[in-house]
């Protein structure tokens, strides 16, 4: 399996890994494209490598995978809004450096008008926010599915803004700058054309399932296509293990 490092900006953390599908061009008519956004409290304590096993698993199923890094709290330029802007830039890079990294026979078969974005935990928040920020489309690509895995999706409620990791990301307390939190909260973003799936581990104690249920109820009232899927019996970290029920459900939702 081939992996290519691709930069989408000049900062050290503005890059990602493109995984090529583990099959030959004769094996497919169209090639799925999946963007992965890792979690880890938006902190430099975690990096895109925690999604390496997942990325490899998806590529083995025939997908092109764009596993992205971004500037996080604890490094120059990290924190809001630059962390979110980096993910926007990484999505827009699908049109340029990501496409350029693909062999011609793969690039011509990629389903550019049906891209999926998958984010775990903090990465799920970024996946929804960045996709809605660009209207679920770049010049060449359309994002049709977002899977937010056990993600904090409303930063304007106590379960969101009271989290220490959220305060570090925002750089200020909610009471001081509530609009800053609203601007960053996926629950406050405009309706977009993509379907949003809030996929939650049923035994998650870090981000309770009520967080995703509240998000889906909130945005569907405004007309957003969104649904909640709960995987019973697993916890928050299950999504980064390809053999877990949470990871297998993700694969099924992606149609792989």
From TrEMBL:
Molecular function as annotated in GO: hydrolase activity
Signal peptide feature range: none
Any Pfam family matching the protein: BD-FAE
Domain BD-FAE-like: 26-214
Domain of life where this protein originates: Bacteria
SUPFAM superfamilies: alpha/beta-Hydrolases (SSF53474)
Transcription regulation found in the keyword field: no
Family matches, as InterPro entries: AB_hydrolase_fold (IPR029058), BD-FAE-like_dom (IPR049492), GDXG_lipolytic_enzyme (IPR050300)
Keyword Protease found: no
Protein name according to UniProt: Prolyl oligopeptidase family serine peptidase
Phylogenetic lineage: Bacteria, Bacillati, Actinomycetota, Actinomycetes, Mycobacteriales
């Amino acid at each position: 399996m081939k992996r290519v490092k691709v930069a989408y900006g000049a900062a050290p953390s503005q890059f990602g890994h493109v995984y090529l599908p583990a099959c030959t061009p004769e094996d497919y008519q169209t090639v799925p494209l999946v963007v992965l956004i890792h979690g880890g409290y938006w902190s430099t304590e975690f990096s895109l490598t925690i999604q390496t096993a997942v990325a490899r698993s998806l590529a083995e199923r025939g997908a092109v995978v764009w596993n992205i890094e971004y500037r996080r709290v604890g490094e120059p330029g990290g924190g809001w809004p630059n962390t979110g802007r980096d993910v926007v830039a990484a999505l827009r890079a699908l049109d340029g450096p990501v496409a350029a990294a693909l062999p011609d026979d793969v690039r011509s078969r990629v389903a550019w008008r049906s891209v999926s974005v998958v984010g775990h935990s903090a990465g799920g928040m970024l996946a929804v926010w960045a996709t809605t920020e660009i209207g679920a489309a770049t010049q060449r690509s359309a994002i049709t599915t977002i899977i937010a895995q056990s993600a904090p999706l409303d930063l304007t409620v106590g379960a969101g803004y009271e989290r220490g990791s959220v305060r570090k990301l925002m750089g200020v307390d909610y009471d001081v700058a509530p609009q800053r939190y609203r601007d960053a909260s996926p629950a406050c973003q405009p309706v977009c054309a993509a379907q949003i799936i809030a996929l939650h581990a049923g035994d998650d104690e870090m981000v309770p399932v009520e967080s995703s249920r509240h998000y889906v109820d909130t945005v569907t009232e405004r007309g957003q296509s969104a649904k909640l899927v709960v995987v019973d019996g697993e916890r928050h970290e299950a999504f980064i293990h390809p053999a877990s029920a949470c990871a297998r459900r993700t694969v099924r939702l992606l149609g792989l």
